[in-house]
Write a structure and sequence with these properties.
This protein is α/β, with parallel strands linked by helices and 409 residues long. It is 40% helix and 10% strand. The protein has a domain of 197 residues: Alpha-Beta Barrel (TIM Barrel), CATH 3.20.20.70.
Length: 409
């Protein structure tokens, strides 16, 4: 299972992507998560991720991490403590001479570059004229300098017809992984930014996505599809589709346990990090964990620091006992199901009851079902009913970095 963590440095960004999970926080300079945190806090979070959660790699995000004033120092620190660092970036400020060389010297492992279209479409989606020209310059420089890179592409409505061409660009540039991600109703997207006009129909996605996957696999490039119903895939591509239950088995996805902690309010805003020890998934986590840190805040404001620490300790012991009894896979799978139900209010069509993959598929986003219904669902009947989240994905060939091979293979 994955040992990758994530840290959000602050929701300050030089783009305005309409599909962003943090679109409101980026637009509001007074939001407690908007401003970048201090370097000392970022280092403290990374140390917890390495020492407590035993993660071995990290995705560093902003907003936009390359405009974080002390990003090179943070990259070096992560590498020094054993967290191999990736930057998730829009690539606007990486083409200048010396920039990428500095990241390479600091120990960056790779870049995960956000390519959300081509030409004017990319500029329209990210809200900045000239962004596509800048990102292509940065990608070309990454290739020159010899820093590996992957692509993220969010499949909003205007981008869908371009998916095969984006695949060709990935092949030409030399990306080693491409992730096609559904336009998801996560975070700030629950506040009305998604509409029937900018969310594409799954049937339309399928046509373009099938061509893109075939192109990439013929070129030997790993391709992953995030958060679409499994029945949208052609049978040969089911191995490429990841819903919540599959995420933990991808080394480039985040550890649910550390992810649960880093997305709590105290870890995403400017103040100090929340009190330790930190919560583990499993029994009792649903009570202690709140994205805004409200439970912990209420306890501390009431002067119950001792009770708070005791609650964390009891929860840790109970969660560990639960994992020992049920197995780590079962605990992580239960967490995946909670996220699917809680974050997106996923729905199924009646035909899903006959689907052999229903138990490992999230279904349809709740608001997607409101926009378009669920009639696109198609029961997968060419397999026996399975309860194994890895049933399809174990057939996929994955790229595993050298540093991860001792535990990931």
């Amino acid at each position: 299972m994955t040992r990758r963590s994530v840290v959000w440095l602050g929701q300050t960004c030089n783009l305005r992507c309409y599909f962003c999970y943090f679109v409101n926080r980026i637009a509001d300079p007074h939001h407690p998560e908007h401003a970048f945190m201090k370097l000392d806090k970022a280092k403290a979070i990374c140390q917890v991720l390495r020492d407590f959660y035993r993660d071995t790699s990290i995705d560093i995000q902003g907003g936009e991490p390359t405009i974080y004033p002390r990003i090179i120092e943070l990259v070096q620190y992560c590498r020094d403590i054993g967290l191999h660092p990736t930057l998730i970036t829009n690539g606007l400020f990486l083409s200048k001479a010396g920039k990428l060389e500095a990241y390479r010297s600091a120990g960056v492992r790779d870049f995960l570059v956000s390519l959300h279209g081509l030409g004017e479409t990319h500029d329209q989606v990210v809200g900045r004229e000239g962004a596509y020209e800048e990102i292509t310059k940065s990608i070309e420089r990454m290739r020159e300098v010899g820093i590996p890179f992957r692509f993220n592409c969010t499949m909003s409505e205007p981008v869908v017809p371009l998916l095969p061409e984006i695949a060709r660009k990935a092949i030409d540039y030399g990306a080693y992984v491409v992730n096609y991600i559904a336009f998801n109703p996560f975070g700030d997207q629950t506040t009305g930014h998604r509409t029937a006009k900018n969310v594409p129909r799954y049937a339309d996605i399928k046509v373009a996505l099938t061509k893109a996957i075939d192109l990439l696999e013929e070129a030997g490039i790993e391709v992953n599809v995030r958060y679409l119903p499994l029945c949208i895939a052609e049978p040969r591509h089911r191995k490429n589709f990841y819903n919540f239950q599959q995420l933990s088995y991808d080394t480039h996805e985040w550890n649910f346990e550390s992810w649960l902690w880093t997305m709590m309010g105290p870890q995403m805003g400017r103040p100090d990090i929340g009190p330790g020890p930190t919560p583990r998934i499993g029994w009792g986590a649903a009570k202690i964990y709140r994205p805004d840190g409200s439970w912990t805040a209420r306890m501390l404001e009431g002067g119950h620091r001792g009770r708070t620490r005791a609650a964390y300790t009891v929860q840790h012991l109970a969660a560990r006992a639960n994992a020992a009894l049920c197995g780590r896979d079962a605990v992580y799978r239960a967490e995946a199901r909670v996220r699917a139900a809680q974050d997106c209010h996923y729905r199924y069509h009646d035909v899903c009851e006959r689907c052999g993959a229903k138990a490992i598929c999230d279904g349809f986003h709740g608001d997607y079902a409101e926009f378009f219904g669920t009639d696109e669902a198609c029961a997968i009947t060419d397999i026996e009913p399975t309860d194994d989240p890895r049933f399809f994905i174990r057939e996929q060939e994955k790229f595993v970095e050298i540093e991860d091979r001792d535990w990931a293979l």
